[in-house]
Structures are given as C-alpha cells and as structure tokens.
Design goal:
about 200 residues, globular
Amino acid sequence: IMKTLAEQAAVAIKNAQLYKAQEGLTMGSIKALAQIIESRGAGICSPKSSFLKIVLLIGQDFHLSEHELKILQYASLLHDAGELVLPEEILRKRGKLTPKEYQLIKEHPLKGARIIKSLKSLKPVSPIIMYHHENYDGTGYPRGLAGNEIPLGARIMAVVGAFEAMIVKRPYRKSFSIARAIEEIRRNSGRQFDPVVVSAF
C-alpha cells in the first residue's frame, strides 16, 4: 500500500512540475508577443500594469475562478495582437482613416484571435480577443454581438481598454484627463459598455 501511495505521489508531483513548466512556457510566449506588440511603437496602446490590475480586480469582483482570471490576464496582455499584421502607417496616421483603412482596423480582433488560436494552451483566450470591440447594444465589430452574447472577459476588456486608450496620448489626438475618461465610460454605459461592468469599474 505504501509503495502504491508513493508511486501515486511521485506521479502527482511530476504532473505538477510539468504543469508549472508549461505555465512558465505559456507566460514566456505571451510576454514575448506582448513585447513585439509594444515595439511597434506609438500607434499601439500597449497594456500597462495598471490596465492589467484594473482588469483583474473587475474579474475578482465577478468572482471569477483562478483559471478564469489567468485567461483574462493572458487576454489583457495580447488583446491587440491582431495589430501586428496592420501596416504601421495606419497605426501612426494622424488624420482621419479612409473607409478601407478603417475596415483593416476592424479586422484586427479576428486576426489576433487567429494568431492566439495557433497556441493550443491559449485557445480559451481567443474569444475574449475576438470580441473585445463588440458593443453592448450590438453595434460593435467583428460580429455585431450584443449583451450577454459577448463573453464576460471581452465586456471587461472593452471598458478598461477604452479607458486606457482615452488617457494615453495617441498620434492623432491628445489624452483625456482621468475624470473625463471616467465620464465618457459612464455616458456610454448600456450602449457601448455593459452597465454591470461599468459599475464594477
């Protein structure tokens, strides 16, 4: 009996070590991708530690499990991975986008989800990346989903992503004050954003 228990314990320890190693490899891949996104420069809103903290705090407010919070963390780091395949001149453009350029921008969530889906361990991250530009009232992209059709992680990312995009200076506009950005989020509650997520934010 002792021998059997010892063998089972050894297998359990080995599995835990393998899981830890895989988790380290996954996080390493994510950080590498996030650095590539950030290196594209001023056109991309790279996720800051404050962005991650807010996303995870809202996730905790919704009582997400440890695994769900981990998925949310990965999605936060990679939410704009699709922008890697966009021409830099579009990302840095100061003037108004042409309809064709805007169409390319609208395709980045699908392209990002495709990039992430190729990494098996990141498959659950893919829907959050794909739908984080959907609007609560169904007017977003790429699928025009509405309300609870949009995954909760994507609804959380939509609010925090919009907030960070407003307070960060972009090539085409000045940054908002925090107070003004919060007011904009409140104003678009129920239209662009899930009111429950806005309340948690």
